[in-house]
Amino acid sequence: MIVKNYLPAARNSTTVHVRAVDQGADVITGSKVPRPTKERLANDAADALGIAHATMSPQGGTVVSTFLDDLHRAMYGTSTGGVDTYRKAERLLQSLGLTYDPYWDTSEAANWGGGTVTARTYSRIRSALLDTPRCFILNVTDAPVGSKWETDHTSVYRYDATVTGRQPFNDAGPGSRVLYYSTSKSTTNKKHFVGHAEVKYIANNWDPPWEAQLTGYTEFETPVSIDDVAITGWNRQHAITEIDWLTYEAIVVAGGVSPELDVASETPDPGGDVVAERVAKDFPATVPAIHVPTELPLGELPLRPPQIPEYKEAANGRGVVGGPSMPPRSPSDRKKDKVAELRAVEVAIRGLEGDGWTYSADRQKDGVGYDLEFTRAGTTLKVEVKGIQGSHLVFNLTPKEAWRAETDPDWVVVAVTSVLSPSAYTPHLISRDRIAAASRVVTGFRLTL
């Protein structure tokens, strides 16, 4: 995937979009960013990938859904494969490592706008392509006038439909960066920038009021006076104002801290765990019967020899290429994994019960190489469940599970792809012969010294 230099100031840009610091006057300069339209966000993503701009619907406010396929094809060589607008958006965001949010990214969880893909989706795509978040100034105060909203503004920022700047802030959503501006009504650090943080999630949906859940709040070592900052178009009475990355970065550096936040739940997909929990609660699984063949493979089935990946240094010297990468799972990722696992188990139980099986035992904590037991007409079925957040059948197998696949004729896998999707989750019953024939790649070693 090649991303060319892009109009808004990118995090890794070598071209100065604004004079981040005017050395002559020693003043940080920048401009308020107007709210970008959905078309602008989509076309910025197209420019980043060097493809044709989006086609708009005849009504003018909607990007034609095939543009999502165009973006996916430019990055990965294939279309999304989604059967409708929702699934196209979901697949594209998944490919970028982002959790699809049916409450914000589309109208899937709403009672309006069937098939609508929101500006939020295109904003997330643009930010992911550039590895550059959208940035905002948030007005805060410790004065009584702000007590209704700001009792804990280092972790939550509350606002409603009367707040100027709410629309671009909602459009940007998780992963956005915020600067805290202490207003003239504050008792300390009046008219100073005092810290910064990242938006983890905005609750609940497009209807007010809202709560922006914030993470990684870092207080400036040296508050930055408004006298040292000149932002064209910024009305300090407006509670929320969008600025570009370079202006944000310059103010943070002037405050004596790093623009890269030390976030305990550091993840390229902030808020994904919140979405997962909401979907699991609001979209209970409705599952067709999972049919088990009357005859399963018998005897021993040797697995294919595992492939050991071969790596080499990347051409730019900043990484390695040649094999699978297993990035560390953040606390947020692990929380999402747990929701996926529970939802997959629910799908497996309901689907197999629909085929006439009786759920008889939970073996998940027994360390026996499978998760669930079912019985039917004197037959026992041992089921290993895999909750897969993507749309492809790719999953890990433990040594005990591999042993079961080779030797146990009563053992099967139920893998649920797109398990966190509101409606596109799909259960797959996989028999031992398919496991035996599958490609296996080594992803780790356990050493004893």
From TrEMBL:
Residues 341-419 form the Protein NO VEIN C-terminal domain. Residues 315-337 are annotated as: Disordered. Pfam families: NOV_C (PF13020). InterPro entries: NOV_C. This is DUF3883 domain-containing protein. It comes from Nocardioides agariphilus.
